[in-house]
């Protein structure tokens, strides 16, 4: 009796066998738990995919209905057949009507009738305006490019003219000195520093001022191109000398025969 009344020891095997083994990692490892979770999510996803939205159902039914030809059970189609209509024929008294039913256009927005045509007209006007602006921009860029290239060409030409003028002045000074001239025919025929050297008997400051005044007068009257043209003509007619050839010819006939011309372009 005493043994029956005694309670089982909580550490005995009888108590442990009645308990469920829920030690983590023993049966349900992390890999198995992750697999169970994925299967659960897949099951929920499959359940959701079975339920289609109202819009999707309407679209499927509409597509199915439009792709199916009208059967003979349709009363309207039966009346047409009694009047001699056959599938594929056009309707109308003279056979100029429609061969297919009027297509269905589903209106998915809440805009009023005619707004799509107005929006299309505005889009076309906007595209035309953009095309016009693009053409105007291209024309402006082309003009700017042409102006830029023209300025570069003028700058390059001006530098070449200045260089040729200095070379011609040096040649003219040397040829005039060889012929015994004390001063040039025109003040711009000689370099300015050569004019200063020739006026040694006068005060240096006064001489420099006179030379500067003469040069200023010449610059006001003639441009660099005109000075070069005048000096080139003087050298060719007086000394039969060509600045670009760098040669002094025997006479005018020899100059005209062997020299390409009196400009820098023909010597390139």
Automatic annotation (TrEMBL):
<dbReference type="Pfam" id="PF01585">
    <property type="entry name" value="G-patch"/>
</dbReference>
<dbReference type="InterPro" id="IPR025239">
    <property type="entry name" value="DUF4187"/>
</dbReference>
<dbReference type="InterPro" id="IPR000467">
    <property type="entry name" value="G_patch_dom"/>
</dbReference>
<dbReference type="GO" id="GO:0000776">
    <property type="term" value="C:kinetochore"/>
</dbReference>
<protein>
    <recommendedName>
        <fullName>G patch domain-containing protein 11</fullName>
    </recommendedName>
</protein>
<dbReference type="InterPro" id="IPR039249">
    <property type="entry name" value="GPATCH11"/>
</dbReference>
<dbReference type="GO" id="GO:0003676">
    <property type="term" value="F:nucleic acid binding"/>
</dbReference>
<comment type="similarity">
    <text>Belongs to the GPATCH11 family.</text>
</comment>
<feature type="compositionally biased region" description="Basic and acidic residues">
    <location>
        <begin position="37"/>
        <end position="64"/>
    </location>
</feature>
<dbReference type="Pfam" id="PF13821">
    <property type="entry name" value="DUF4187"/>
</dbReference>
<feature type="domain" description="G-patch">
    <location>
        <begin position="72"/>
        <end position="118"/>
    </location>
</feature>
<feature type="region of interest" description="Disordered">
    <location>
        <begin position="37"/>
        <end position="67"/>
    </location>
</feature>
